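Technical annex, item 7. During the second reporting period the consortium partners agreed on a shared format for inverse folding records so that results from different sites could be compared directly. Each record opens with the tokenized structure and is followed by the designed sequence. A conforming record, contributed by the partner at site C, is shown below for reference.
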């Protein structure tokens, strides 16, 4: 009986396959291996050129990026100047580029109850705007817990869980960001603790080569992180001088142009069954003086060189 049922099921599946258009192509698609990395441009890299969000998107697409990380204030400025989100979404679709993440600074982690409630409303508004343009992530840095040490990390975990729930409802998941200059979440160990204490399956962290160095984290810690915890990773590099204590955002350089162990970092990020978004985030005033497309192309080339042979 079991054998007859098995043969019957096989025959039924074959019949279904003959009736469903594109069945074979769908089967092939399901077996297709995802790329280890996709390449994204954080628009901070072109901030000094002051092009506006649409031109930044066009530059990223022309340079050959898969995606873009936008800044929420740039999207809001676009709307304030008369643009609409449906128009922006249409332009994004025409360019064939994905909005992978957005950078905002809601103070969701602050110890002040009123500040946090205001931040929740801010996040709801920002997430709604992002969902309309197809963005499903928002950075969640420790804004509001930067200058004063002593943040209770257990409480921070509860606060992160709350904004994760808001994100689930809005379809835009906050990525807990490492900030090397913060008095609290400046180490990857602290960020992992808060993510773990949230007890939420949607918890994700957003590391950054420069911030890991600035905050005193060991790059070896990346070897301990498995699964979907890191979906997006900020790419940059840093020179040997200035030293760690005084280095600033503006000192960041292209991947491979500094002394960071970029190749090893990418090897440790590699997951054979998933894709990690590598996003070029620079604030270098020397690059801001150059042609935007040249900067974008140079950054993409250097990221691809760093990722070559990983796996």
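Designed sequence (site C submission):
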């Amino acid at each position: 009986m079991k054998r007859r049922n098995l043969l019957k099921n096989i025959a039924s599946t074959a019949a279904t396959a003959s009736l469903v258009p594109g069945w074979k192509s769908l089967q092939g698609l399901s077996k297709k291996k995802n790329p280890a990395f996709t390449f994204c441009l954080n628009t901070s890299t072109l901030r000094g050129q002051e092009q506006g969000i649409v031109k930044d998107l066009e530059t990223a697409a022309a340079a050959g990026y898969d995606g873009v990380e936008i800044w929420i204030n740039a999207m809001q400025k676009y709307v304030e100047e008369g643009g609409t989100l449906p128009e922006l979404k249409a332009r994004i679709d025409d360019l064939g580029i994905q909005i992978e993440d957005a950078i905002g600074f809601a103070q969701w982690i602050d110890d002040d109850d009123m500040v946090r409630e205001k931040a929740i409303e801010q996040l709801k508004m920002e997430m709604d705007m992002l969902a309309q343009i197809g963005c499903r992530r928002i950075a969640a840095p420790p804004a509001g817990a930067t200058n004063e040490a002593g943040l209770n990390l257990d409480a921070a975990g509860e606060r992160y869980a709350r904004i994760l729930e808001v994100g689930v409802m809005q379809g835009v998941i906050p990525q807990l960001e490492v900030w090397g200059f913060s008095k609290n979440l400046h180490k990857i160990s602290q960020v992992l603790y808060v993510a773990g204490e949230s007890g939420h399956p949607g918890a994700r962290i957003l590391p950054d080569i420069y911030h890991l160095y600035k905050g005193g984290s060991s790059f070896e810690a990346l070897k301990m992180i498995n699964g979907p915890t890191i979906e997006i990773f900020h790419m940059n590099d840093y020179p040997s001088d200035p030293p760690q204590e005084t280095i600033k955002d503006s000192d960041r350089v292209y991947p491979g142009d500094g002394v960071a162990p970029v190749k090893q970092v990418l090897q440790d990020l590699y997951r054979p069954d998933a894709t990690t978004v590598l996003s070029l985030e620079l604030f270098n005033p020397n690059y801001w003086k150059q042609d935007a497309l040249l900067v974008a192309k140079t950054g993409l080339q250097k990221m691809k060189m760093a990722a070559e042979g990983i796996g």
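The CA atoms of residues 90 and 307 lie 31 Å apart. Residues 37-307 form a domain with the TIM Barrel fold (CATH 3.20.20.150). All partners now use this format for quarterly exchanges.
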